[in-house]
Structure formats: C-alpha cells, structure tokens
Please model this.
Amino acid sequence: MRSEKFPERSLKILPGLALAAGVAAAGFAVSGGLAVVWPFSRYLASPTLAAIILGLIVRNLISLPTIVESGISFGVKRVLRAGIVLLGLRTSVMVVLEAGASAAWIVACTITAALATALLLARLLGVTRSLAALIAAGTSICGISAILTAAPAVGAEEEETSYAVMIISVLGLSATVSYPYIAELVLRLDAMGAGLFIGTAVHDTAQVTATSLMHDQLWGLRTRSGSSVVDIALATKLLRNAFMILVIPVLSLLFRKRRLQTGGGPRIASAVPVFVLGYLAMAVVRTFGDLAFPSGFQVWRDVVHLGELAGTGLVAVAVTSVGLSTDFRRLRGYGIRPFAVGLLSALVVAILAAVLIRLFADPGGA
Model:
C-alpha cells in the first residue's frame, strides 16, 4: 500500500516542480542574455532575481491549473530545505560560530524592537494584538515558520494567521529584490556587514537565501577569511530561527489569557527546524573534510563543488516556487492597517540592523 502511494505522490508534484524548474532556467537564461547584450546589466538583474520576477509574472498574469499547485508548494517547503542543507557545504563550523558571535546581540535587539513596535502600532491603529504579534514574529525571526509556530502561542484565529503569512510574503519579496542593492549601493557594507544585514533584516529563510545569492551573484564579496555573503547570511538566519526557543514561551506568557480561551499552546518542539541541523551537519562535514584532505585532493574538491551546485540549483527552483506561489490578488479585501503594521515593523528591523552593523560590526569582516 505504501509503495502505491509514493508514485502517486511523485506524479502529483512533478508538474509544479517542472514548471518551477522551467521558469528558473528561463530566469537564468534571461539574466545571462542581458549580460551579453548589456554587460552593465549584471549589476541590475541577477539570475535569482530574474527567476523570481518571472515566477511572479506567471502567477499573476496567467491562470495556472490546479495540477501545478502541489509541486509549487513542495518546492517552497521541501526543495528549499534540501537546498539549504547542501549549501552547508559552502561553509565551515568556524564561519557559523563567527557569524553567530557577531549576530546574536543584533538579532536580539531587532526582535525586541519589532515586537515593541508592532504591539504599539496595533494599539494606535486598532489592529488585534495577536495579529500584530504574528507580524512581529514574521518580520524579526523567520517569516512564515515563525508565524505558524507563534499562532497557537498567541491564540490567533485562522484568518489572522493567513493574513500575517500574506503580509510577510509580500514584504519579504520586496526586501528580496531591493536589499542586495541597499546593502551595496546605499549602506556600502562589506561582505560581513552585508551578510549580517541580509540575514537579520530579510524575513523568511527562502527570501534570505535568495537575497544573499543575488548579492553574491552581483558583487561576489568575500570576508578576509574567504566567507561569502551567502555563508554569513545563512548562518545569521539560522541563529534567528533558534531564537524561537526563547520568543515563543515569552509570547505564550504575554497572551496567556487569550491562548487559554482558544485552546492554543506553544509548539516549542518545532522551534528549530530539522533542516537547520542538516545545514550544521554539512558545515561539520566540510570542516573535517578540509582538515582530512589536502587542498590539492581533487576528489574532495569535486564532491564539494557538486554539492554546492546541487544546493544552488535546488534553491533556484525553490525561490522560483516562492514567486509562483505569491498571488497579489489575494490581498484584495484585506484592510491596510495590518499591512502598515508589518511594513513599519520591517522598516524598524532593517534600519536598526543597519545602524548597529555600521556602528559596531568589525569593518572588513574576519
């Protein structure tokens, strides 16, 4: 019976995955073609950005058949996690610890500021405190995962959870297409600073991955130790994910009365996703592999290179799936005030992160 379900499930997700892979390939082709015709375009349109934009165009201008929905959802969730795990081969345990040491206090400050801002704005604008808490968790911790984890802790209604997810999706996509340029052209951050900024200020894990890949594709900055913006941003983002272990119990206490009324409760067990552990495991593998094999050992270098290519390819399909799953038409009928809470909370996180990084981060990186 189980063997019959597997092929059925595979056939169900294949159309959507094929669509996402095709759109991702088209995005990379468009970016490459522009670079040939107009070399300066490589500073304007990275392959990842082109893939996301094409995904958004397809979703919002074309009526997609329901047969592709399962595969698109699978790409956003499962394929992304597999890609992030493989991207752990790009880095080492030392890079993770280095980024974590620099980012921990910045992440703590931005989470606190986002929660305070959202709850204050909720009172001023007449938005429910539970919806504001979900928006704050999404903007400051880890996007949709934080919203879904925090929802039972604050006793949120299903409609509030859905709206918070949509707000974070729209704001996160806006950050994805703009923050690489803000980090480089406005803030003039080095590799360490850009990685910390993107890993702290962009919301969802998929969006952080896409944003940092865009920055890497556009400018290719490295720290003094050779780490890329992607390495620093992912390590920072995974640290933010871990903060749910602390934040969810706090929210549960703040919303104890409402939570008891709705029968919800914190889901601490899901606070640290399994793919975080997978990413760290790949970083450990890379660290010990580099120590065990000399730098000229071609087989090990080929294994690492193939792993990185596979991870980048999976992430490309996943972030394209994010574009294909974002339907702006769903925003119709929602009020503007909760969106204003999300936008202002996101701006507070980004501005505070930028200020702290500019004032206190080690210039030039380690």
